[in-house]
Amino acid sequence: MTVMTIEKKIYKMTREERLEYIRKATQISGDIEAMLQPLSFEDSNRMIENAIGIMSIPLGIATNFVINGREYVIPMAIEEPSVIAAVSKAAKIAKVRGGFIAEADDSLMIGQVQVVKLGNGKHATTKILRDKSQLLAIANSNSKSVVAIDLRVRLLRDKSPNNMGNMLVVELVIDTKDAMGANAINTMCEAIAPRIAEITGGEVVLKILSNYSTKRLVRCRATFDKDELGGSQIVKRILYAYALAYSDTYRAVTHNKGVMNGIDAVALATGQDFRAIEAGTHAYAARDGTYRSLTTWGRTKEGDLAGAIELPLAVGVVGGVVNAHPTAKFALQILSVKSARELATVMAAVGLAQNLAAIRALSSEGIQAGHMGLHARKFSK
Ligand code: MEV
């Protein structure tokens, strides 16, 4: 996609003009109206149990994003006013200094098999590790697309009040490539469980992926020009805002809620498991024992604002809802990402942009002025 010049501001366009804008910006051909058809009741009824209807959420597009030199139109599904306007504005400011630079790890996930009622935990560990290649072969025997690449064992002591004794956690490290991978991981864990029970003589209880995907991190950074932000004083006030988010959990949770306004909206639009993303992300925010800001902010030697974000993002561009939901398919077409890793970089950039927009507003005019103006639209019919 080439960098576009927008003659008319998106928010002033009619829906038809916006669809035309998407068509031009993304080279999507075909009937966009038809692609935007909502999920049918029949599909919903196949997807979940006891379906009675469809819960709809507005779908919009964020603009101005340049990530690793490529311009993106970003679909976002969200019911909250001002989020899309805010990220688009933040992305415009970032663009002045070259946009967002982002990179994502390989799609490595962890699947856990819990073993209890062990005799000697150390002996059991040795026996499992001795049979590692056989266990990996069992894990991989049913899977074409994702690959178990490693297996490790951890011996844990129950820290709950119930005193259930020692347990082993056998962990598969699985490359899920362009899928989020939950189903494949769970299948692999279930496949190796009987052999693990046999080897250890213990009892296998849980066989499930971990949503704490710390081997699947994404990192994104951007520089925001001080004059575009409103001057050095604003930069300083943003650093005060960050100081509170880094140092105080009460503020950190709200600060990160703003980050997730952006990330969840892209996740929802593209059919990701946003509950998994939320759970993993918040655990990551507390990785040093204290819940902190997911973003970091500082000043460059020129006095501009430098922002960065790092978080685990287990997302997919194939499989699951991504294949089943027409809007998710269309949203991925708009994004035109080639891989799950690329999707993760886009989501990280949106999270960083959303956080910048929020803390800039909070440290200048206050959130109500901007936010409430957009809220007011809802009631001004
Ligand atoms: C509102 O949805 C999100 C904010 O509260 C985030 C923040 O305080 O940083 C504005």
How would you describe this structure to a colleague?
This protein is α+β, with helices and mostly antiparallel strands and 381 residues long. It is built from 15 helices and ten strands. The chain has helices at 15-26, 32-35, 41-47, 83-96, 121-130, 132-141, 182-200, 226-229, 232-247, 249-269, 274-285, 321-324, 326-335, 340-363, 367-379; strands at residues 59-67, 70-77, 101-104, 108-116, 147-157, 166-175, 203-210, 217-224, 295-299, 305-312. The strands form three sheets. Strands 3-8-10-9 form a four-stranded antiparallel beta sheet. It has a four-stranded antiparallel beta sheet with strand order 5-6-4-7. α4 crosses α14, α9 (232-247) packs across α10 and α10 runs antiparallel to α11. (R)-mevalonate (MEV) is lined by residues 80, 254-255, 257-258, 261, 358-359, 362, 367.
Brief account:
The chain is 47% helix and 21% strand.
Topology:
Blueprint: H1 15-26, H2 32-35, H3 41-47, E1 59-67, E2 70-77, H4 83-96, E3 101-104, E4 108-116, H5 121-130, H6 132-141, E5 147-157, E6 166-175, H7 182-200, E7 203-210, E8 217-224, H8 226-229, H9 232-247, H10 249-269, H11 274-285, E9 295-299, E10 305-312, H12 321-324, H13 326-335, H14 340-363, H15 367-379
Antiparallel strand pairs: 1-2, 3-8, 4-6, 4-7, 5-6, 8-10, 9-10
(R)-mevalonate binds next to helix 10 and helix 14.
Q: Report the principal-axis shape.
A: globular
Helical fraction equals: 40-55%
Largest sheet: 4 strands, antiparallel
> What is the number of helices?
15
Order of helices and strands: HHHEEHEEHHEEHEEHHHHEEHHHH
Structure summary, number of beta strands: 10
Bound molecules: (R)-mevalonate
Amino-to-carboxy terminus distance:
37 Å
Rg from alpha-carbon coordinates? 23 Å
DSSP strand content: 15-25%
Name the structural class.
alpha+beta
Strand order of the largest sheet: 3-8-10-9
Task: Give average pLDDT, whole number.
Answer: 93
Weakly predicted, low-confidence segments: none
